[in-house]
Amino acid sequence: MTIHATTASVSTRPLTGRTALVTGSTSGIGLGIARALAGAGAHVVINGLGDAGAIAQTCRDIASEWGVDVIHAPADLTDAMAIEAMMAQATQAFGGVDILVNNAGMQFVSPLESFPPSRWDAILALNLTAAFHTTRLALGGMRSKDFGRIINVASAHGLVASPFKSAYVAAKHGLVGFTKSVALELARSGVTCNAICPGYVKTPLVDKQIADQARTRGIPVERVVEDVILAQQPNKRFATVEEIGALALFLASDAAGSITGTALPVDGCWTAH
Ligand code: NAD
Which of 233, 251, 248, 229 is closest to 107 using CA atoms? Predict the structure, then answer.
């Protein structure tokens, strides 16, 4: 499905003519990033799971609001073959991907002894291995244009750890390491690779954690937010998807051409501890 622009692109928008693929962009941070990039003029490949009708409506909304083309690639990113099909779909629709945002992720919280091996495998596959596959498949096109932006949505948990999140912390630390390695390999090219490391952002992923913690601890949701979730975050507020989108937009711009190999915290001082 391709939703075509209904209004003329505005040439002053900095990403006009570029194509962005944002994994996990049917919800939360990914959707915020997709909107920010579309707002700057990029055509967008939306990826993620969810209700097909709602996703189609989201694509139409972004296309009509910003005058860009939007397609949905429904790939399950734990499946390498599905990732190959998604990258081929993007190439067929737009001739390649200029801005790749590896954002899709999931969380599972459990002591190590009872951590289900299937959850470990799924988290590593989605939060880390999927970025390897999308990146390796996007690089040829980026190198040929001598331009590319790879933005990996890691986490404060890519820089520091918390108990009971072993798979997530391992995957996010891995994603930060992957970011540095890719950036070094591409340092002499026009392709940059950076990680964004959010603290807590209010999205469905965090809403589920809040509900789970309230149930497990037998305390009200408000206390979970104050005493558990934001306990690590000194500014005591959630970051917004618009704030993460704005940083991704800057990293995607020409102005950020010398920023590569970094892991940028957006965490209200969490990792300054
Ligand atoms: P979310 O649950 O709102 O969105 C997750 C997205 O990933 C959805 O679009 C979902 O459909 C997609 N997805 C899930 N499984 C998939 C699969 N197998 N294949 C393809 N897509 C799949 O979560 P979010 O909070 O927006 O998180 C986005 C990213 O940000 C994740 O990598 C997460 O680890 C990271 N992050 C989130 C926070 C936070 O506080 N919300 C903090 C730090 C990092």
Answer: 229
Q: In angstroms, rounded to a whole number, what is the distance separating the alpha carbons of residues 243 and 156? A: 15
Write out the two tokens for 60: 């139409």
Residue that the structure tokens 């820089």 belong to: 159
Region 90-108: mean pLDDT is 97
User: Are 271 and 237 spatial neighbours (Cβ–Cβ below 8 Å)?
Assistant: no
Q: Three-state SS for 26? A: coil
72, β-bridge pairs: 46
pLDDT attached to residue 10? 44
Euclidean distance between CA atoms 190 and 257, whole angstroms: 7
Ligand 1 probe mutation, 153, 205, 264, most atoms within 8 A of CB: 205
Pair type for strands 70-73 and 2-3: antiparallel
pTM metric for this prediction = 0.95
Ligand 1 contact via 103 beta carbon (within 6 Å)? yes
Q: Does ligand 1 lie within 6 Å of residue 32's CB atom?
A: no
State how far the Cα of 103 lies from the Cα of 126, in Å rounded to an integer: 9
In one letter, which amino acid is 246?
Answer: A
Phi, psi at residue 258, to the nearest 5°? -95, 0
Task: Tally helices (H) and strands (E) across the chain.
Answer: 9, 8
How would you classify residue 261: left for phi > 0, otherwise alpha for psi between -120 and 50, otherwise beta? left
pLDDT of 12 reads 81
| pLDDT at residue 2, rounded to an integer | 67
- Residues of the chain with pLDDT > 90, as a percent, come to 92
